[in-house]
């Protein structure tokens, strides 16, 4: 019996190169290790992407593989909250409802946010965001682990999705010619081929490295400290997300329930390391001080903001007179403090022939706007629609024109959002008087212009 490699050699000699590639591809299509789509990375974005594509009716006959480096996710809900949470926007909730995640999240817990209030510690300036209808939410606070829990339940029920855990990618060989297959090799020696490779493998993306695209990034010389906080008073009104800009960074309190909030404290690396080492009681004192401390203010800034406030009141525009006060913190949950580095990153290109980047593999932002993971979920909605339409129209999954539509659409949304967040980070980490004056007046004016605030919310929701 003639062996397969002998037949391949005969075909190489008798067929043109392009014809041989088509033959090799058709052979790979019958292989157990060949998939239509491989999703590299099974974090929140990767697992959500795999589920979304698998449930797309137009892709129901396509084989999808999810490669995740960690072990199988076996988290179970407990009374104790996780210290890592995200603020999901309205469009992300709609996506989660569509793919079945939300029913699992809703059955456990989430906290609606009806209002966001941010204010400057070096002036009287502040801004609030709420919905046009007081009964509607502007965001939802959900634990990272709970999202992965919902994804795990849904993904394991899908017939066209295969999940491989502890799958660490060693290398990716991308397509050069139209009929070339994409090959992903794991550290254990196993290889998989596909028509389309989607990189959801985070900031240090192996897929992005294989694509060879330019990546611009920098560290903020800051870290983010997270913790679960216990409030001094049990209040049904703990539905406000608070954010205070202090000279060394930002402090955000995100509601969890009537008596607990989640902390995201961005500060210098040295300060964060000191805060991590403090005894719990002393840490709470430092936190309350940062939330309530009256920092020294410049007279010019004070006079200018008061003058503008008077003008806004005369014009019957919103002013800072309705500022609410944040809750007092009485304690922190044991062992809930942790820290992570902060940085900015953006890939000049999201696509290459047969490959695309999604989520943190393509873009990384500062958490002060709570938009990082929402940008990734926005990528998913866009890519899901484009791939579904491509297959419905009879085109291949790796069609470069379709992938360029995805890249163009998402960069038009992501880049302005990222630049705005980066600008805010730089704007609010200085006490230089001209900058403080500029940002204070700008915050007041934006707060007074309801249509502008609506536009900001609309941008953040996509």
Automatic annotation (TrEMBL):
Its EC number is 1.14.15.45, 1.14.15.46. It is found in: Mitochondrion inner membrane. InterPro entries: FAD-bd, FAD/NAD-bd_sf, Ubi_Hdrlase_CS, UbiH/COQ6, UbiH/COQ6_monooxygenase, UbQ_mOase_COQ6. It catalyses: a 2-methoxy-6-(all-trans-polyprenyl)phenol + 2 reduced [2Fe-2S]-[ferredoxin] + O2 + 2 H(+) = a 2-methoxy-6-(all-trans-polyprenyl)benzene-1,4-diol + 2 oxidized [2Fe-2S]-[ferredoxin] + H2O; a 4-hydroxy-3-(all-trans-polyprenyl)benzoate + 2 reduced [2Fe-2S]-[ferredoxin] + O2 + 2 H(+) = a 3,4-dihydroxy-5-(all-trans-polyprenyl)benzoate + 2 oxidized [2Fe-2S]-[ferredoxin] + H2O. Its cofactor is FAD. It holds the Pfam family FAD_binding_3. One of its GO terms (cellular component) is extrinsic component of mitochondrial inner membrane. The keyword Cell division does not apply. Pathway: Cofactor biosynthesis; ubiquinone biosynthesis. It is a peripheral membrane protein. It is an enzyme of class 1 (oxidoreductase). It comes from the Eukaryota. FAD-dependent monooxygenase required for two non-consecutive steps during ubiquinone biosynthesis. Required for the C5-ring hydroxylation during ubiquinone biosynthesis by catalyzing the hydroxylation of 4-hydroxy-3-(all-trans-polyprenyl)benzoic acid to 3,4-dihydroxy-5-(all-trans-polyprenyl)benzoic acid. Also acts downstream of coq4, for the C1-hydroxylation during ubiquinone biosynthesis by catalyzing the hydroxylation of 2-methoxy-6-(all-trans-polyprenyl)phenol to 2-methoxy-6-(all-trans-polyprenyl)benzene-1,4-diol. HAMAP family: COQ6_monooxygenase. This is Ubiquinone biosynthesis monooxygenase COQ6, mitochondrial. It comes from Popillia japonica. The gene is coq6.
